Amino acid sequence: MTNLSMNLVATARDHGDTVALRCGDDVLTYAEFDAAAARVATLLEREGIEPGDRVGIMLGNTPAFALAFYGILRRGAIAVPMNPLLKAREVEFYLTNTGASALFATPMFADEARPAAEAAGSRLWLVDDAGLAELIADLPAQPSPVERGETDTAVILHTSGTTGKPKGAELTHGGLARNGEITARTLLGIEFGDVVMGCLPLFHVFGLTCGMNTSVLVGATLTLIPRFDPRTAVQVIERDKVTVFLGVPTMYAAMLSVAQEFGPSATATLRTCASGGASLPVQVLNDFEKTFGCMILEGYGLSETSPVASFNHPDRERKPGSIGTPIEGVRMRVVDADGNEIATGEPGEIQIAGHNIMKGYWNLPDATAAAIDDEGWFSSGDIGKKDSDGYYFIVDRKKDLIIRGGYNVYPREVEEVLYEHPAVAEAAVVGIPHDSLGEEIGAAVSLKPGTFADPAELIDFVKDRVAAYKYPRHIWILAELPKGATGKILRREITVPEVESIR
């Protein structure tokens, strides 16, 4: 049996008294973690959730997420993680797109979760850590995980692209298990006794696989921070003696900004740091290592690749600015527009093949076929090149993806909301370079004849309809947006004005 939740069962059996999850003053051992997840599975069974059914998780970085996630897998159901900051219309789409039977959501965002669940016909549990514990307190534990196969879907993670509507990437029990095992064994060296910092969102594949699932596999302690704050992060590293830190570039930059407030002993236990989610500026890497005395290993992956595809392996030469070499069992190549592999050093689209590739996009066979060819090569949408040593470098993005503070923002999704405003004729969302976030969201808009809307109005319009990290902070009005010969709006030709003067 390949059910990913078997890792929790095995670790609880071998290391039941070891601390599995820590969040502030709350602590759960592996035995307590496994027992609670087993009661969540019973809850789902009694509510009519069958193996293969989809269950949403709209919870923050607290133990409740981990219990719900492993309880869903134990029941044989499919987890659909989502950002708790999503608005009701976005939550409703995730639920209806997957046909989710139920949703675990935090009470803090009940105003968004409740109408979405009602519209989608999904059973709703509004729970925080204490609420979930109370909900399952009197339930018996499901005896053992439901049998699942390697190619059975375990998780559906929503990503997006050119259509504006998110697509659900199906990640399998086997793919997630192997990605976690390889991460622990060959990339980060995580083992029993380690303490892993859990400040990456667990609804994101980086935090889910490399943080939580890998910790569960080896019996490490995952210490959670509900909301990232650089001072809190350093304090928790010191308090819990964190050995492994996983973060996105903005987190490393933020910790550097407060480094002078702490002595060198605060982070003395750090052994390994890993960065992903966006390119890590070489200057930030060098400054962090000099300040905190811990090497950062940079890697690369996507939701569709479970996520790790390449990494700067600890036992090989590290090249700052590079995303490293393919991980064990994974192949990468650089191809031209016709799919032909191109010469070393030349830029092209990165393609990936191996055990880490998703099963496909949920109920979207055409999109799946467009992304994965007959030989199993997945087209990443990223432009990169390979050097003579086999190291890969990201040059640009083929897709119009914006990465704001580690979160993916797809312009078309935001543009669709702008087009709903009665005065908007055309809209193009672009990324604006930002010192701490990496990129900020901006939008160029043209208005319909005879109408009026100022930037502040348009910003508020979008803000009310999408998650907080997605709405444009800067909007400027143009008479007409630049277009190509076919009439397509050319985002790359949009000139961004001085943003200081724009809301």
TrEMBL record:
Domain called AMP-dependent synthetase/ligase: residue spans: 11-362
Ligase found in the keyword field: yes
GO terms of molecular function: medium-chain fatty acid-CoA ligase activity
Highest taxon in the source lineage: Bacteria
PANTHER family, sorted: ACYL-COA SYNTHETASE, MEDIUM-CHAIN ACYL-COA LIGASE ACSF2, MITOCHONDRIAL
Family (UniProt): Belongs to the ATP-dependent AMP-binding enzyme family.
Protein's name in the database: Putative long-chain-fatty-acid--CoA ligase
Source species of the chain: Gordonia rhizosphera NBRC 16068
